[in-house]
Amino acid sequence: MTATVGILGGGQLARMLALAGAPLGLRCLVMDTVADACAAQYVPLLHADYCDKLALAEFASRVDVATFDFENVPAESAEWLAQRIPVFPGPRALAVAQDRLAEKTLFQDLGIGTPRFSAVLSRPDLDRALSDIGAPSILKTRRLGYDGKGQFRLRSHYDADAAWAALGDQCDRVGLILESFVPFERELSVVAVRGRDGEVRTWPITRNWHSDGILSASLAPARVSNDIAAEALVAAGRVAESLDYVGVFALELFETPSGLLANEMAPRVHNSGHWTIEGAHCSQFENHLRAVLGLPLGPTSARGVSCMLNWVGELPDPLAVLRLAGAHWHDYGKSPRAGRKVGHTTCVADSAQELAVMLETLGIALDRRSQTESVIDALRSSV
Ligand code: AMP
Fold first, then answer.
1. How far apart are CA 143 and CA 99, in angstroms?
2. Which distant-in-sequence residues (6+ apart) come within 8 Å of 246 by Cβ?
3. Which of 73, 103, 228, 377 is 20 to 30 Å apart from 52, CA to CA?
4. Rounded (to 5) percent helix, strand, coil in the chain
């Protein structure tokens, strides 16, 4: 296949998309505002601002289809491109996913449960929203927040001043939303792909653990009840249909005793789907490329039981991972920095018991037991 896929954003997701495209004979071109974007170690880079029309025109002339490695490309730039070349997911899906208020409103309209929420327009409006929603709650920026950034947790009404001091100055620029704090039992995600012909496939449901708002570990397939699995798959299907979505997306969910509540959607391949590279018959990266190019979708079933560990800030010792059969090392080629995702490791095993032993070995070898312990507990309690 000779197609060239243009990717707006040149981070690790673009890099893994390009790597997945290589066996299919695909070429990629990334556009990024930073010159040392990590995908550019393997893929040609157009270094420009996303609003630069000349650069967008050059990008459009060099690719057959455009897609995204992150959702915060300006919606107007996506629209501009969509008038010239196929862009998947489409600008509407991008616009909805860029705004937590639009996103939660869509979920509600589709009958998908959400935490209680209210837009916050000013400091007095925060008091009004707090009276409606109550505490504990979380004040979040509507746009441009990621990995727990742009969030403030309120334990009581007395925290309103502190919350406003932290985020109030962003109210006019990116908007604010107050959400009820959900005392969830587990965090789950469903990663799904929808083809150009409307076919939807979902990977097994993934259980996720976060640390400081950043994904720390993912386990798949998660042991969930049939009811929870069905609810998650129905929710993903409704979101995909309503946005006429094409490509991979992830729906982040909180599991509560009364069912699922949707936190947010990511209109792109997602960190909680990295395990699919080695742990599923067709990865989220390959299926995203297949979807945006109108090719048949690949099977999304799991190969065994997988756990993905994110390396945040700095990489651990690669040799300890490489020595362990069934463990896979991914180095994104990024320089270390606090809070930055610099790589991940996926362990794949035939059984939960076997995976628990692998994680125990790895946790000790890498001195990362705090990261592996909860996953091991979950695996041991399910066998
Ligand atoms: P987000 O940026 O919205 O994905 O939030 C990052 C993480 O913060 C989530 O994965 C949860 O662990 C936590 N979080 C976000 N919103 C809520 C909420 N409404 N209730 C409880 N925890 C939350």
1. 5
2. 88, 89, 90, 194, 195, 196, 291, 292
3. 103
4. 40, 25, 35
* pLDDT per residue as tens digits for the range 306-345: 999 999 999 999 999 999 999 999 999 999 999 999 999 9
Q: In angstroms, how far is the first alpha carbon of the chain from the final one? A: 44
Q: Ligand 1 pocket, 255 CB below 6 A?
A: no
Q: Look at the chain and count its residues.
A: 383
Strands 4-8 and 65-68: parallel
- The structure's pTM equals 0.96
- Rounded CA-CA distance 64/205 in Å is 32
Mean pLDDT for the chain overall: 96
Structure tokens of 28? 């990629």
| Cβ contact 12:36 at 8 Å | no
231 lines ligand 1 (CB under 6 A): no
Ligand 1 site, residue 235, Cβ cutoff 6 A: no
* Cβ atoms of 96 and 102 closer than 8 Å: yes
pLDDT value at 169 more than 50: yes
Distance CA 139, CA 126 (A): 9
Q: What's the rounded Cα separation, in Å, for the pair 375 and 358? A: 11
Strand partners, 67: 7
Q: How far is the CA of 55 from the centre of ligand 1 (A)?
A: 36
pLDDT at 146 over 80: no
Q: Is the CB of 187 under 6 A from ligand 1?
A: yes
